[in-house]
Amino acid sequence: MAATMTDAEDAVPGLADTVVVNGAGRIEIHNALYGAMVLPANVATDRLEEVRALQRRRQDLVPLAFGAGTWKAYRSAWKTFTAWCADLGYEPLCGDVEVLSQYLVHLERRDPITGRPVYKRSTIDVHWSAISAAYEHAGRPIDTRDPRLSLLLKAIRRSKKNEGVDDADPINLALLRAMLRACPPGIMGLRAKAVILTGYLGCMRRSEIEGLHVSDADLHHEYEDGLYGVRFRIRSSKTDQEGKGSKAGVPDVDDPDLNLRAALETWLEARTVMAGGRAPDGEDPLFCALTKSGKPKPTPLTGHVINTIVQDLVAEVRRRVFADEAEQKRLGLFQKFDFSAHSLRAGMATEVAKSGGDTTELMQTGRWKSAQVASRYVKDRDAFGGAARVLGMVGGR
Hints:
The chain is an alpha+beta fold. It is 45% helix and 11% strand. The chain has 15 helices and nine strands. It has a four-stranded antiparallel β-sheet with strand order 1-2-3-4, with helices on one face. A hairpin with a 5-residue loop joins β2 and β3. The longest helix has 21 residues, at 68-88.
């Protein structure tokens, strides 16, 4: 029978390690992130206690390195890698550069029927980061300087340089208006309207929308130029893993369809009514889950649900204009089917560029640190500036 030891409960539930000697006399490291990681046979079992001590210290530190979303993506990627290894008879933690390079080539492949890439460049990067993190976690770091890996990674990234950051089609202002009109009645529709306006005008990632608390939204902020509007505090994001935080601002506008402050106030008022008169606390999620009857839950709206809200509204708009090809083209729907929550961010970036915003303004609007990355979000050609520019042009639309 295998000898086992379960370490003390980790500060982050589910990431505690179990170090065992399996029936084959091999040391295994088990955790909720990567599952079972079997060390090679040349790691002697008399080093079991040393491995356990290292794992105890590691499990205290590793969860702090990334956000929960990153860990979830890494776990999924590692599961895919181990399944591929099992299919070909490889050991996931063998450290063989040839095995790792074969897997990278496997990820780079194209669908034989459609000719489209099976994985985007960003997805391949996530898989590689997950594998590298797993090797680090097991105390067997990968030598990324090995030319068999470094040159292959460079070649893959160059071959995919024109694929863009994300395949999500952008939502233009005309489609945004149509989606707002398609929101269902009642509290579900009020939440949907507030969510898509926040994501679009705030140029936010869905994880940033999900992470907003009530106190993060200043609905009556006065800016230095005398304008009023909404200012969001974004506590952390994909490019801010250390949680330094950033700001996103959206000015007030007379257009009732695009007035974010009014949409948020209406949503929060309805939420209070449905909660029996209890207004949400400052640390409650700004966008919460709802029961089928519309009662607020204490949990935040998940990224998956935000994605579903966007896709359902786009589908409803498409249904309404199904027989009108000219209207489909005006709305940016014609022969475009890859809409998601990311379409809100891509759409705002595109509108800022189309309205004459320069690279600096674009970077401020989406809080991008790289001009190259920001420019790749533009499809079809202070965070406040981009929203102000776009909203200043809506009068004629």
